[in-house]
Amino acid sequence: MNLLTQDTIVALATPNGTGAIGVIRLSGPDALAIANSVFKGKNLTKQPSHTIHFGTITDGDLVLDEVLASLFIAPRSYTRENVVEISCHGSNYIIQSIIKLLIRHGARSAKPGEFTLRAFLNGQFDLSQAEAVADLIASDSKASQQVALQQLRGGYSTELQTLREQLVHFASMIELELDFAEEDVEFANRGQLKQLIHDLTRVIGKLIQSFELGNAVKQGINTVIAGRPNAGKSTLLNALLNEDRAIVSHIAGTTRDTIEETLNINGINFRLIDTAGIREATDAIEQIGVQKTMEKISQSALLLYVFDAETIHPDELQQDINDLYKPGIPALIVANKIDLSPGYLEKFKPHLPEGSTLIAISAKEKLHIDELKQLIYDQTIQGKLNGNETLVTNIRHLEALQKTEQALIKTLQGIDHQVTSDFLAMDIKQALHYLGEITGAVTTDDLLDNIFSKFCIGK
Ligand SMILES: Nc1nc2c(ncn2[C@@H]2O[C@H](COP(=O)(O)OP(=O)(O)OP(=O)(O)O)[C@@H](O)[C@H]2O)c(=O)[nH]1
Ligand SMILES: [Mg+2]
Questions:
Q1: Which residues span the domain enclosing 287?
Q2: Which of 37, 104, 118, 345 is the most buried (most CB within 10 A)?
Q3: Which residues are involved in binding GTP (predicted)?
């Protein structure tokens, strides 16, 4: 990726396909001149920033469309370059014709994420904020939108930046010691350095820990519905979604493959996974289904174990719990079909694991479904998300944080073992390098390429 591009790029900023309007974005030094060369109306190169102008786009004598041109003059634009946004009618034909025309007049097709890349390179925001732009566009629940917005507004990069600057200060003091190596002086107070590293590792440790929840919020929380055939798992999926998504029948073994759907509870997306009933499989396909169920449980954040309260024997319940419980994965025990057997729950209680939560519902009659939803939320999210904490959602940041942590631990060990300044300086530099990767203070072309190529074209 050539980072010193001085050309003007163009792309459709709105989704592909037919819409009421389409917005074509031009950015670069010649954005105004190129737009002006195909625009009939006012002279766009002579207008002030942040103004909108009505006119036509013409290709020679041929009028392509009536449009509005919005002008953002550098540096007061998203990319901090000259930007023109042409709002035209949302016909795919018109949009493609205008883009081709602009390319003929000197613009170049933008690559994925190139507008945001330019914004980053021109100092509009740091790298983690640029990445948050992509997350914000992809956000599909209140929680994922909030987390992305928080990161876009600075999030933890501000906090890390401050700590990084202090570490830079120490690094330079230690470098200074190297210059006076013969005189055996210490410019960098080791006690203060240790304190700073402790502060840093505490902040970083917290961020690393937040990834589990952050990632769940971003991707949706995997919630597996499992149990014996005919327990009512698919009926429960349908009741939670409030639609007839899965086939339900009295025949045991109805669901063979897993079915996944998203359910939003209190702003969090849960990925509900209905599975094949667990039993001794009677054929090869069912066998695969059962294996898949076990796999899904081990990848889930919450298990909804459903049983038929009318027919199950307590020993069978015990057996299921032994088979399905995985350490570290919280589980809710859901007694179904209480419309048929109200009040029989007491007999199950002695067979349940300590601290487990039992809820009685009727999936078919939609009894206690809202209480179950609240429990699903409570088991996974409650108390962990209060709206303004910083969550790491990006795997690249997680890896950089883990590497920073390791380098800091090495630095601490170095101080304790009274290693010479040059070794200490090396470890601190390592830590600074990884910290810098998060905010983009340290970048390589490959890294940028990797990040921005995942954006959509036009962003
Ligand atoms: N009375 C009553 N019947 C229910 C309830 N929930 C499910 N059923 C019935 O139980 C039978 C099995 O329901 P399913 O939802 O297909 O069960 P499943 O656990 O998905 O079964 P498999 O896919 O075969 O593993 C159907 O006839 C449902 O109508 C309930 O709460 N009350
Ligand atoms: Mg089913």
A1: 228-234+245-380
A2: 118
A3: 230-235, 249-255, 274-277
Contact 13, 87 (CB under 8 A): no
Ligand 1 pocket residue status of 417, Cβ below 6 Å:
no
Interatomic CA distance for residues 43 and 66, integer angstroms: 16
Give the total residue count for the chain: 459
Q: Is the dihedral of CA 289, 291, 292, 296 positive or negative?
A: positive
Supply the pTM of this predicted model: 0.75
Residue with the smallest CA separation from ligand 1 atom 21 is 230
Same domain for 263 and 203, yes or no, is: no
423-433, pLDDT tens digit by residue?
Answer: 989 999 999 99
Tell me whether strands 21-27 and 39-40 are parallel, antiparallel or unpaired: unpaired
What distance in angstroms lies between residue 306's CA and the mean position of ligand 1's atoms?
Answer: 10
**Ligand 1 contact, 196 CB (< 6 A):** no
State which of 121, 136, 156 marks the end of a domain. 121
Confidence at residue 284, expressed as pLDDT on a 0 to 100 scale: 82
Task: Please check whether residue 446 lies inside any domain of the structure.
Answer: no
Whether the CB-CB separation of 33 and 10 falls below 8 Å is answered with no
Please tell me if the CB atom of residue 277 comes closer than 6 angstroms to any atom of ligand 1: yes
Each residue's pLDDT tens digit, 189-231: 888 889 999 999 999 999 999 998 888 888 899 999 999 999 9
Query: Of all protein residues, whose CA lies closest to atom 32 belonging to ligand 1?
Result: 337
